[in-house]
Amino acid sequence: MEKHVIPPKFSAVLRNRSFMFLWTAQMLSQLADRVYIYVLVLAAYNLTHTNLGVSVPMLSFGIPSVLFASFAGVYVDRWNKKYVMFFSCFLRAAVIFAIAFLLESSLLWIFLVSLGVYTIAQFFAPAEASSLAEIVERENLILANSLFVTTWMWTSVAAFGLGALLVGFFGNEKTLMISSALYLLSSVAILLVSIKHSNLNAGSSVKTVKQDLLKGLEFIRRKAVIRYAFFKMFMVTSALSVVSMLAIQFAEKYIGIGAKNFGYLVILAGGGMIFGMWALGGLSHYFKKNYIVFAGFFMTGSCLVLLSQTKNLYLAFFYCFVLGFGNILINATVQTVIAHKTPRSLRGRIFGIQNMLINFAFTIPVVAFGMIADSFGLDTSILLLGLMLYLPAVMVLFEAKET
Description:
- Helix 2 packs antiparallel against helix 3 (51-78), helix 3 runs parallel beside helix 5 (107-121) and helix 6 crosses helix 13 (347-360).
- The protein has one domain (10-193, 205-211, 219-397): Up-down Bundle (Growth Hormone, Chain: A).
- It has 403 residues and is mainly α.
- The chain has helices at residues 10-14, 17-48, 51-78, 81-99, 107-121, 124-135, 141-191, 206-222, 224-253, 263-286, 289-307, 313-341, 347-360, 364-376, 378-388, 390-397.
- Helix content is 81%, strand content 0%.
- The radius of gyration is 20 Å and the shape is globular.
- The relative contact order is 0.16.
């Protein structure tokens, strides 16, 4: 067991003024993003009525990350992170507002516009992650990360519910304009964050940028703990993205609550995340991070295996709750390890590469499991996903040192 002199406390995190403004910006931008995605997924499903069609907006989310996120991280290390986040939100607000009345014309248009929006977003994620590590004390970072991850889930839940209400009252076009307004408010909150800017004296030529990116990749190659952490993040994010995509059909055809009520499954997962966030402070005080991550993967994989075999509403709700609990144990712990083990001068690049890897999980796995669900059944797809998560659980047991 691992013991610390002072256990991490939420009160210390919440008294941090810059953290509160960054947290507020995160909530607003996530609400904006999920309301936007709600409209996209709904439009794609109405156009195609297939799981593969629903995966198109997720592809537009993942492809820009694969292509641009690593280079975005290089520039985040050079530029003022506060202004990077501000312009990322402001430009997304402007683009969504400009195309609100044109988005539903075709599935191709949905894909192309979203590709542009999420290309801009690639600069936000590494800037936000590296800023969080700078404005929160080291001993409280695991709780700050758990709060960010849980907020991400709950704003996703709230945004799906909010999206349904907004579309019902105002229609898709005006709902997209509200999403634009939320991005604008997020950019205002970012301006109130106090982040010390370290000016990195580096050239901006293609050669110099490439060299800086290679330094980040070399750091990852040399640091086994970072490589393992990236693999774990990829696996847990793949599971989360696939479950999100399959939840609509699962709600409609397996537990009989209707496609429009799939948000209840997400709500239960969010409840598990909140419980996990509360428990994580004590768990991180007494147990090694490896043990926490192992427990998270084992619980998540087991719940997916069981979920694939049930059509009982209450069991499905319980499994979703445990899924959320396991997810927060993995996500917050691994994110904290990455922040602790990465030098400040490299954080933008490392979090940029991490963002690329995480969002890659929204492309190939989503398409693959969508095709499996359409071809072999939803239960087969969920079962395979659960079994897949036992691999990182076993790997954690064989790691020589605590991450």
